[in-house]
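Think of the structure tokens as a kind of shorthand, similar to the way a musician reads notation: each symbol stands for something richer, in this case the local conformation of the backbone. In the example below we present two proteins back to back. Begin with the first one, reading the sequence and then the tokens, and try to describe in your own words what changes along the chain.
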Amino acid sequence: MALWGKADKIFSPGTISVNYETLEVTGAGTSFTAASEGDVISIGVGKTFGEAVIAGITSATVLTIATARFLSGEVVDGVGYSLSQKPKYTLHDSHYEADEIYGVDGAEAEVAKTTQYSVNHAGWVGVQTYIDMHGELRVKTETLVAMSGISTGTAEFIVAEGATFEEIIDAAGDADDDDIFPDT
């Protein structure tokens, strides 16, 4: 199991429920077989319930997580989720919230050069924003893992699964970060 991968988004349809005692995640309409052991599952919109590392995948609708340490402890039942291969060590990095780590590909890094979100290198990037004493937005970016191979989507997998056209387009696109790191 690698410490990080290349995919900032893996096909994540359906909803999930989490059993904190057994560390089992059960899905409805899910396709967990698109993921791998060691990938990260982010639970809830904006990762409101937290994140966990996948310990094993039993089927398209059942997986286990390594620990619930980075989950909120709140009841998770019928909640959306997302899968990625972000660096596992960022789950407990106190410098970044769960939604402040981005997979930035070469095109996104190039476009970002002209914005406040400019990055030094494509790869896994941490972003912190704050308002300074003058009321101005300030942005700090840090390349956590410099790599040019960040990729998005799993179109080949979902085509084989018979996904709709909209699902294919969604999966082939990048993670929901286009406000911060747009492709063009």
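Once you have a description of the first chain, move to the second and do the same.
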Amino acid sequence: MTDDLLQYAQDPSGVGGLRGPELLAMATPVPPIDPRTKPSRSRPNRGRKRRYIGPLLAEPPWDILKATGYPIPPDLTPLPIVPPMWRRGPRYQEWRVQVHNMWGTTCHLCGHVEAHTADHLVPLSTWGNQPYDPRLSRPAHGIEGCPTCHVKCNSSRGNRALAIQIANYRPAIEL
């Protein structure tokens, strides 16, 4: 301890010669917080956690797209921005219907029918500004799971880039 602190600690008359009422008079009072005037917390996303969506790419990742083995058209143009909420709104609903109209309801991961979710061939964590194009997606079983093999195919795949490379994906998320 320094000499000043030691002197205050050993001083029997109080802190620096001051006692209780004198110390209270020197203290600055803190006003109580009125709950009616208390500023509210800013919650722009209404408490929902924002998912990470990948980088903005100037052109499609052709090396990943060609490695899928699926026919990919050469006329793809990425979106000018990364959508803040890719899975919300009318564009998403329209895209999902287009995927099922184009490819049917057979899951491209397990091959069973009744797939109600659309799965990106290139994950959004790899290519965040990919267009709402049904040619870049295929039907898959989502959180409801496959009624035949009881696997949540899209969840089991995770953000691994290619469905064709993970034909025997493990561990499977089962119902």
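Compare your description with these statements about the second chain. The longest strand covers residues 117-120.
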